[in-house]
DNA sequence: TCAAAAGTGTTGACTTTACACCCATGG
DNA sequence: CCATGGGTGTAAAGTCAACACTTTTGA
């Protein structure tokens, strides 16, 4: 196929992990680099793939090592392979997009990173390598994807008031939505199970709590829906 | 980030190239391997990335070398990185999806391949490596994508009768479509420019020839449309 | 004049949008 | 009783689906 000249390219994985805290912005997980290049700078988690592990295993391991996070949803995003991405070697990096409910995960920085933190997508620090570009692409994908697959639920608590879902969509899409029409649409998909519980905290009338229906989720995940928000 | 143990993984690119001949099935470009493993077997074009070239450059070079094809449309599909993909080394392969109008491209097998041929997606030979899997994923992507982006035009001649577009959709989606509704919908997007020419060959009433509107294409490519075919 | 493919409209069903007031609770 | 957020319906506009006959050409 190709002359067997020795190839000098490294393979890495990186992860853009989104988390959502109610009433706040959409957040992204960043780690502070403990080694050069960009030592002390912020970057998305990631690292070189080990010889014996599959790509997704590699991302999960790196996430674990660098931040303690185990994402609920994780899918391949895009592979970045330009020759000048890394000042040391040529590195081809397979980027993943992950979703996490941060209230179920404690963040800690392990050996491989000096620190790990959530940052609002609107207030990101300057990032190492081409990571800002990777995040931009991830955000675009998330915004598109949430409109035809029910992945948003991965960011919410197991039981959540309807308004959480509403705010999540508002936040991710960055656009006002009509509460009545939104509720009708979501309800029509049959994705939500009503529980008998109600939200306690906060002022105002307590909202019913919902869980989401895993079977319906799978159905809609496969066939997709069309959910344009006006 | 990660201990600098020497990594032993190779980086390759592969391409699933679709071509469409009027009145025929959708076709895929395959090459006959001239080296082991799978020597003499059929595979999708591809090969190792050179140190100094970007990923997309690598695919284009390999396609050129192995078949003489320069795809009109080419985008990254997915990266396949399981540990056991290749019996020799570990190879991570970045797969691309390409579209070509075969009547504008002569196929030839160059030094790197014994032969290069179009195969109907419905009559593929047994394929090397995990290439059948890659093709399955590419087909799925093509079928989905053609329903929200106007990429189909890349498969047609520069001037084409409306029925070509119709048949193309029928073929790719593998489903009957309503001619009247289809035409209305496509026309409403403003993607087509009517020419003064008509199709000559074939029996029956000659059809007007159309070209497609590059500017509108770009618009719709970015914003996407929603085109479910019933 | 026949066969083959091109071209073309309308109606009813359904879906989407726009829009505002009352309700339940806690302080 | 006030503030806060939760919960709900309807009508008009727009879009989609279903459906069949006429036109143009070449043989």
UniProtKB/TrEMBL annotation, chains A, B:
Q: Where is the Nudix hydrolase domain?
A: 8-143
Highest taxon of source: Bacteria
Report the top EC class in one word: hydrolase
Return the CDD domains for the record: NUDIX_NadM_like (cd18873)
Hydrolase as UniProt keyword = yes
What protein family is recorded?
A: Belongs to the Nudix hydrolase family.
Q: Which PANTHER family match?
A: ADP-RIBOSE PYROPHOSPHATASE, SLR1690 PROTEIN
Q: What is this protein called?
A: NADH pyrophosphatase
**Gene designation per UniProt:** nudC_1
């Amino acid at each position: 196929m190709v002359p067997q000249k020795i190839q000098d390219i490294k393979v890495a994985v990186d992860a853009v992990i989104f988390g959502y805290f109610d009433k706040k912005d959409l957040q992204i997980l960043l780690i502070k680099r403990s080694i050069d290049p960009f030592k002390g700078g912020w970057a998305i988690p990631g690292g070189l793939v080990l010889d014996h592990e599959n790509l997704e295993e590699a991302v999960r391991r790196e996430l674990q090592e660098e931040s303690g996070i185990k994402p609920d949803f994780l899918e391949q995003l895009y592979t970045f392979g330009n020759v000048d991405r890394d000042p040391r070697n040529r590195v081809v990096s397979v980027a993943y997009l992950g979703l996490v409910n941060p209230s179920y995960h404690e963040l800690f920085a392990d050996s491989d990173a000096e620190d790990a933190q959530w940052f609002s997508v609107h207030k990101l620090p300057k990032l190492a390598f081409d990571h800002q570009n990777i995040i931009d692409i991830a955000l675009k994908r998330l915004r598109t994807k949430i409109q035809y697959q029910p992945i948003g639920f991965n960011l919410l608590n197991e039981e959540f008031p309807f308004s959480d879902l509403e705010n999540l969509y508002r936040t991710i899409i960055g656009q006002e939505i009509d509460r009545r029409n939104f509720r009708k649409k979501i309800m029509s998909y049959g994705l939500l199970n009503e529980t008998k519980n109600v939200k306690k905290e906060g002022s105002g009338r307590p909202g019913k709590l919902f869980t989401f229906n895993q079977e319906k989720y799978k159905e809609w995940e496969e066939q997709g829906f069309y959910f344009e928000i006006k």
